[in-house]
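Q: Got a minute? One more chain.
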Amino acid sequence: MRTPLKFVDETVESPLYAFAFETTGVKAELATISEVLNGYSLLGTGDMDVARLPELRAALQEAGIDKVIQEAQKQVDAYLQESSR
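A: Always. Here it is, folded:
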């Protein structure tokens, strides 16, 4: 059986531990994505028909999710490159 201290000693800090996503360039997209997700709130409860997932995906893409993902990846890549120096 592991002791709590041994467990803590064996943890590995994520390389993204101190990363913070700067949302300034994608605020409009994030607001629209939030509105889309509010319309699909039953998904989180398991009460939404999974046949509607393609509809949700299309709505998220129309709202700009690809731009948000691209910006997040750009920032993560820059953060990891900077932190590895």
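A: The radius of gyration is 18 Å.
Q: Perfect, thanks.
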